[in-house]
Amino acid sequence: MKKTLLFSLLIYLLTVGYSSSAQHTVARMWNEVLLEGIRNDFARPTVHARNLFHISAAMYDCWSVYDPGSVNFFLGRSIGGFKIDFDGVSLPSNIAEAQKEALSYASYRLITHRFKNSPGSVETNTLANDLMITLGYNINEESQDYTSGSPAALGNYLAAKIIEFGLQDGSNEVDEYENLFYEPANVPMVVAKPGSQNITDPNRWQPLAFDVFIDQAGNEIPGEIPEFLSPEWGNTVPFSLTEEDAITYDKDGVEYKVYHDPGAPAYINPANNAASDDYKWGFNLVSIWSSHLDPSDGIMWDISPGGIGNLNISDFPTTIAGLKAFYNQIEGGDPGSGYTINPKTGQPYPEQLVSRGDYGRVLAEFWADGPDSETPPGHWFTILNYVNDHPELVKKFKGQGDVMDDLEWDVKSYFMLGGAMHDAAISAWGIKGYYDYIRPISAIRYMADKGQASDPAKMNYNEAGVPLVEGYIELVEEGDPLAGSMNENVGKIKLLAWKGPDFIVDPKVDEAGVGWILAENWWPYQRPTFVTPPFAGYVSGHSTYSRAAAEVLSLFTGDEYFPGGVGEFIAAKNEFLVFEEGPSEDIILQWAKYYDASDQCSLSRIWGGIHPPVDDIPGRLIGEKVGKNAFEYGEKFFDGTIVSIERDLEGAFSLYPNPVSGGSFIHLTDMDPLPLKKVHLVSANGQNIDLSYQFTTSQPSNSIKIKLPHLPKGIYVLRLLSEDNSFSRRLSILD
What we know:
Elements: H1 2-16, H2 26-39, H3 45-64, E1 78-79, E2 82-83, H4 95-114, H5 121-135, H6 151-166, E3 189-190, E4 208-209, E5 213-214, E6 220-221, E7 246-251, E8 254-259, H7 277-290, E9 300-302, H8 320-326, E10 353-355, H9 356-368, H10 375-388, H11 406-435, H12 440-450, E11 473-475, E12 493-498, E13 514-518, H13 541-557, E14 567-571, E15 587-591, H14 594-607, H15 613-639, E16 654-656, E17 660-661, E18 665-669, E19 676-682, E20 688-690, E21 693-696, E22 703-707, E23 714-722, E24 726-734
């Protein structure tokens, strides 16, 4: 009953508006339904990046097909070798209503298909059905005959073709996205037991075993050992990634396609301490940053944009030595020193002094997306929606030209961001699958099992052990509270760290705190039923998604800054944290630029115990490439520079002038004197534009003179139809 009421409230908010001044477009309404479907589904960031892209691209096509100056993405094009036939439609008298109707049917069909096996399928279907009814559409209208002129049929046709495309695009949707070849190199770790438990390859991912595993969307997963999510995702058809971006590797007799390969991460050589220094440094940093999660330690930071942020992409290191200089291993954080003023107000950003312990905990929870999550790619759609709702946002594409209407802005921004999130998933998970890199919980426990690697004269020395750091990573000695009643723990490694879920009885009132624990029992700052995402660490998906999204939002809006010069999220005192009490005061996460939000997201995964630095920076650098390339590619659909219609361009006539200005005459010469049934232009998105013509038989050759209407700049196809044949030429129309 509670969820039903919440769904009804969401429909009301979407259709009536979140405030008296905010009326949302139909694209926004369906995006919110999609995000709610993701929250009610299994936490599968790869799958949902694909869902966000395919459904956003469907929305875009349903808009662009009625806009003569733009190009469809799916309709009339071949994507990854899959052709979607499309013969165009005639422009209706009410274009806006046709776009709204087609978009709704396409979104409805895709959402109900993609979430039909979701644990929240009933809730998602209810939400989708309610929105269709509220919009006045018949969910039983299933015709796909778009040639009838019905926008509903067009939406149904497009959805059916995207569904067909998705069943062969390399994602293995047909088998519920199951892995085809991947097998883990290590036996599972039972997380409730101490140590890494017979890990055989400390450079490879280790599955985790639970009594009960609950994913980040709050779903209990059948079975006790979650499988690696999407290790073969590099084989999925992308948006803008190209073959030039990819390398195909053979590993264990299986081909792995890797886009934007960053090279191997830092490895450990159990027989060579010196060769393992970089590996050990990174995972040591994760355990040390765990000691920061104590709001009572008295350390206060200014977390306003005046105190942190303002990094440039050129600041990111590309070597391990650079990583060691970039991250502050003991104090935490990065070199970002903040901004002198808010450029939108001309005033300094107000200082916000808070506990470092609260800040780190809130970051870890906020950017992990928490229970009932829309996953990282969906999280950036919520940020985009936040930006789109901001009263100071001026909806000019790239900050230039005329103000876009709300629907055009929404469909184009969703299309761009969706494409970037899909490419980010393909690149990051292709790398994850191939390199199969270990997570901190396994690496830290593994090194601790081996002993210490700092001093051969001290007890429990081992080349593969952990380097000692005074005050953070030490040996248990006699008389230590952790020594045990029979000194059974003397010589083991102890860490100053977040103490873990065993110290929390009631998360509403209890706080685990920071203290000395045995390293064999170290936990990330995560729920005990989740612990660590079920896939390899290298590279960080959060870092890749976030930087790609920040690039798209900056380029699309034409401004690196959030509207008004600051974006905010409030984590309420003793309400926001989920698995322990906190924060101890209200924490306002603030970002001047989209890049600041991205960088903060990346750091959150270290404080959360999920990634070492070597996972992070390569993900950010790949995200920059993905975001910029996706934007550049997507823009070509907006300005018509991608020709979407694949026609036979052979024909026995010449055409001049070409290019030509709209409203001018063109001439076709060397024509056979055949009776023509029709002469028309086909726009890049499939629009048919009938033309009048005059045929002459004067020397030196037969010719046709055609008066062009005034048309938007772009690439068109001129088609001549006779009883038995058709002839075509590409025609470029200038401003």
